[in-house]
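May I ask for a sample protein chain and its fold as tokens?
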Amino acid sequence: MSDQSHHQYSDDPINGFKPLSNGDGFSLPITGNDISRSQERVYGDSLMANGLALEETDEEDEEEEVDDDYVAVDHDDVNEYPYWFRRPPVHHRSKLDDLHPFVQVLTQANVDDCIAVEEAFPEQERCSREKFNYRLGRCPELCFGLFTLPILEPGQPKVRPTLVGHVIATRTSTPHVTDKAMELPADWKTERLTVVDGEAVGHDDDGSSIAIHSLAVLREHQGKQVASTLMKAYIQRIQEAAIADRIVLIAHDHLISFYESLGFENRGRSKCQFGGGGWTDLVLEFNTE
């Protein structure tokens, strides 16, 4: 494996996309636990802003004996109390939280990282170095990575983020993944578009479908919801950008239910013979009305 060099991770937009991150105080995507932490801050600010504190009482209010489990409430204030007494759920840290993850657009600077992640696949199904250079160079805005960055103690030197999982994709004009969509154009270094038998080979700038070629996670980080977190962030990003009519991919039988849980529809056996075949076509259609 090639040595990984130190590269800068820029926040500059790439083809209209800005890198996603958890710089706003959230792990990605925003979970119930994140919302809970946000609510705690909101409630604290609201109490101070309104000059109220739960332990304070109005000395002019009529005193009344009640059980410890109850609070006397003026009928005029009934509608306010559900707000003050809401309690956010207790935060339970997950294995994903321990990674301190952030999602970012990938570039050719991440080729070595992606090759390491791709080892999660059988050898015949892995993306080659040349294909990574092609896809990350031609359409980096369609390729996302989930990184982990440890919390450093004061005085510790900065470390390079570790790529934990990635989504690698290109555009295609077909409504499903084909062998030509999976191929590397022979003249990719000199030609922007290669067409064979009326179909583009590899990336098609004018394609209305996003073809996912790889969703992979480092073996040591599998089982930590990395794949589902990354795919949910990816789907949301593509849908909100309104840059495609659908996302298409191929998967083996044991992963069909995973993709169906994310909204993909099973379209039956794929004609694609990449990696030996045996794939199923899965499609996530966006509402384009």
Q: What stands out?
A: The first strand starts at residue 101 and ends at 105. The radius of gyration is 25 Å. The chain has two domains: 32-84, 97-285.
